[in-house]
Design a protein that fits this description.
There is one protein chain. The protein is α/β, with parallel strands linked by helices and about 325 residues long. The chain has 3 domains: about 80 residues, Winged helix-like DNA-binding domain superfamily/Winged helix DNA-binding domain (Arc Repressor Mutant, subunit A); about 100 residues, D-Maltodextrin-Binding Protein, domain 2 (3-Layer(aba) Sandwich), CATH 3.40.190.10; about 110 residues, D-Maltodextrin-Binding Protein, domain 2 (3-Layer(aba) Sandwich), CATH 3.40.190.10. Helices cover about 45% and strands about 20% of the residues. The strands form 4 sheets. The protein has a 5-stranded mixed sheet with strand order 4-3-5-12-6, sandwiched between helices. It has a 3-stranded antiparallel sheet with strand order 10-7-11. It has a two-stranded antiparallel ribbon with strand order 1-2. Strand 1 and strand 2 form a beta hairpin. It is globular, with a radius of gyration of 23 Å. It holds the Pfam family HTH_1. GO terms for molecular function: DNA-binding transcription factor activity; transcription cis-regulatory region binding. It comes from Leucobacter komagatae. Belongs to the LysR transcriptional regulatory family.
C-alpha cells in the first residue's frame, strides 16, 4: 500500500505543480511530500522531477509515469474489489466525507442503518468541504465524497468519478425572531448578513441571489460554520441562508422561511469509477441514498413548519 500511496502523491504533484500545493491539498507536510517523491524515484530507478528555477518540474520519465500511473491505480481498485468479492460477503472499510450540514444530518442515520444492514462494513466519517473531499477521493484517502451543488452553478464534469444524485435540500432564509417575518429579500437590503467566506460555492450563490433581488448584501460576518451562523442569527446580529438539513434545535431564536424550490441545493455522492465493483462501497452508497431521501424529506417538512409556525406566532 505504501507504493500505491507514493504513486498517488506523485500524481497529485503532476496535477497541482508544486510540492506546497500537494501538501496543502493532502494536509501532509512539504517534507513528507518530498520524501514520498524521492522514495518513488528510488524504487523506479530514475529521477522523476528536476529543479526548474526555485520549483520542480517533471522529467521525461516523470511525464511518462504521470500518463501511465492512473491506469495502475484504477487497476489496483478493481483488483482489490474483485479479491474481496470472492468471499461472497459485504465487508471491508469505507471512508466517507461530507460538508458540515451533511455530517450533522446524514452521518448519524447512515451509521445506524449500516449497523443493521451491513454489520461487516466498517465506516469512517470525515468532515470536508467539497473541493477538499474531491481531492481526498482522488487521492484514495476516502471512498465516497458527498458534495453540494447550488442553483445556477455548473461544476466541471469529473470523467474519473461516478456520481449519484441523492436529492435536493431546501435553502432557508433565517432572520432573528426580533426582526419579525420577512416576505421579500429586499426587506433585508440594509440589514447585516453572515455569509460563507469568499471562494465557496454557497457564497457565490448567496451573493447572486441577493443581486438578482436588486441589492448588494451587507456582509458583516463570514463563516462556513452553519452552527455559528445560526447562533449569530439567534443573537440578533445578522440574517443568513442556511440549509434545511440544519437540525431544528440550532434554529431556535430564528424565523426560518423556505426559499423557492428552484433555489434548493443538490446533494451528490461521488465515488471513483474504478471502485464501482467494490461491494462495500456500493452498499454504503445504496444506504446513503435511502437515508438522504428520508432525511431531506423530513428536513423540508421541518423547514416549512419552522417558517410558517414562527410567522403565525409573531
Amino acid at each position: 500500500m505504501s507504493e500505491i500511496r507514493r504513486l498517488q502523491t506523485f500524481l497529485d504533484f503532476a496535477r497541482l505543480g508544486t510540492v506546497a500545493a500537494v501538501a496543502e491539498a493532502t494536509q501532509y507536510s512539504t517534507s513528507a511530500v518530498s520524501q514520498q517523491l524521492e522514495k518513488l524515484a528510488g524504487e523506479i530507478g530514475v529521477p522523476l522531477v528536476q529543479p526548474h528555477g526555485r520549483l520542480l518540474k517533471l522529467t521525461a520519465a516523470g511525464e511518462t509515469l504521470a500518463r501511465e500511473a492512473p491506469t495502475v491505480l484504477d487497476a489496483w481498485d478493481r483488483a482489490r474489489s474483485r479479491a474481496l468479492a470472492t468471499t461472497g460477503e459485504v465487508r471491508g472499510a469505507v471512508a466517507i466525507a461530507a460538508f458540515q450540514s451533511g455530517c450533522l444530518a446524514l452521518f448519524p442515520r447512515l451509521l445506524a442503518a449500516l449497523r443493521t444492514e451491513h454489520p461487516g462494513v466498517r465506516v469512517s466519517c470525515t468532515q470536508a468541504e467539497p473541493d477538499r473531499a474531491i481531492v481526498a477521493l482522488r487521492a484514495r484517502e476516502i471512498d465516497i465524497a458527498i458534495v453540494e451543488r447550488y442553483a445556477g452553478q455548473h461544476p466541471e464534469p469529473h470523467s474519473d468519478l461516478a456520481e449519484l444524485y441523492l436529492g435536493d435540500d431546501d435553502m432557508l432564509l433565517a432572520v432573528p425572531a426580533e426582526w419579525g417575518p420577512v416576505t421579500e429579500l429586499t426587506q433585508l437590503a440594509e440589514h447585516p448578513w453572515v455569509f460563507e467566506e469568499r471562494g465557496g460555492p454557497e457564497r457565490a450563490w448567496a451573493e447572486a441571489l441577493c443581486h438578482e433581488a436588486g441589492f448588494a448584501p451587507v456582509v458583516a460576518h463570514e463563516t462556513s460554520d452553519v452552527i455559528v451562523r445560526c447562533a449569530m442569527v439567534a443573537s440578533g446580529a445578522a440574517a443568513a441562508f442556511i440549509p434545511a438539513l440544519t437540525p431544528e434545535p440550532l434554529r431556535l431564536g430564528a424565523i426560518c422561511t423556505p426559499l423557492p424550490r428552484a433555489q434548493s441545493r443538490s446533494l451528490v455522492a461521488l465515488t471513483r469509477s474504478s471502485a464501482s465493483a467494490d461491494a462495500a462501497i456500493a452498499a454504503v452508497v445504496q444506504s446513503l441514498a435511502t437515508v438522504a431521501v428520508r432525511t431531506t424529506a423530513r428536513a423540508r417538512g421541518a423547514g416549512e413548519r419552522s417558517g410558517l409556525a414562527a410567522q403565525a406566532s409573531s
